[in-house]
Amino acid sequence: MSPNYLPNHMPNRVEEIKRITRIINSALEDNVTNILISGQPGTGKTASIKLIFKNLKGNTNALFSYVNCFNKSTRMGVLYSMVLDFFKEKRPTRRMPSRRGIAYDELLDSFKKELEKTNTKVVVCLDEVDQLEETELIYDLIRTRWETGRIQVIGISNNPFIFNDLDPRTKSRLYPLREISFNPYTKEQMREIVKAKVEGAFHEDVVDKEAIDYLAEFTAQKKGDVRVARETLLRAGELARKSGNSKVEVKHIKERLNRTRHTKAIRMINELTKMERFILRLIPESGTYYPHLYRFYKSTDGQLGDRMFRNYIERFSKFNLINMERKGVGGSYFITLNTPKDVLFGIS
User: Is the dihedral of CA 33, 15, 234, 196 positive or negative?
Assistant: First the structure.
């Protein structure tokens, strides 16, 4: 039931996985086509690409690098993540380069030379590519070539038109581009998925059949988000146990679905750094003005300056975790949470 659990088989995404695998294999034979994978949240995009990478790693000398752009949103952050993957897999006895004191262009050139030395081809997946702050990175990766190879770029986004706004120079380099759409799961597919998760996480007959059917139908109607189903099952099981029930029933599913509608916000919380979570926790349920929040932060022995602290707050707003509204005579921002604290942090 863990969000990081990777299944060995995804029966409802067999065709998509086959198509993506064929395109990657073709790229490894020097016929490089870049890929955009799009679809609603929770439709198996990330799990599919991770499963493909896992299956291909043992059959080729290529480097398969997965980067989540929510966590690594700058070109330096993405590039350094790829470099670290390279040294861990291809140069494990070599000392990894330090990120401090090295320029982006210098690191990119050094990476290219290492790929040439080791005759390594590269497939990189930029998950949540819409969170990338410096799209010049895509151009840089695609134009990076050496005698025996180049980099294949796979983008994952909920938005099928995410690459439409790239500058003409990058778009021309990006093509040929194959677009693969992950359609929402049907009710029957969701039922198979929910049933499989129940069988893997609960004892036999602990979850009522009616509860499984209700959850499958609800999530299918809500664009088939598997993460909603997983989170609901997990929390419904905890609710049944705390209330002294031996079975997970429809009533437990319904109660938890009310909170599971905040799944996107919860997922983002799990992606935040320790510092970001600490700052977000400082915002009271009733809201606060930015100057008050910053003073409160400083009273906790916070070391960030005003500008850096403001960057954190603006990042929360960008991800819709908070709302910022100018109020009062001075026009200071009034900040409120968009999701209750007990949901965000599991506070009972």
Answer: negative
Q: Return the closest-CA partner of residue 123 out of 86, 93, 87.
A: 86
pLDDT score recorded for residue 313? 92
Which value, to the nearest 10 degrees, does the dihedral of the CA atoms of residues 165, 171, 176, 182 take?
A: -20
Q: How many CB atoms lie within 10 A of CB 175?
A: 11
Quick one: pLDDT band at residue 284, thresholds 50, 70, 90? very high
Contact partners, residue 297, CB within 8 Å, separation at least 6: 279, 282, 304, 309
The span from the CA of 82 to the CA of 154, in Å, is 14
CB 159 within 8 A of CB 101: no
CA distance 145 to 152: 11
Contact of 337 with 285, CB cutoff 8 Å:
yes
Q: How many residues in total does the chain contain? A: 348
Based on DSSP, count helices (H) and strands (E) in the chain, helices before strands: 15, 9
38: left (phi over 0), alpha (psi -120 to 50) or beta: beta
Q: How far apart are CA 13 and CA 90, in angstroms?
A: 30
Give the residue, 147 or 348, on which the prediction is more confident: 147
pTM: 0.74
pLDDT in tens, 221-246: 877 788 888 888 888 998 898 888 88
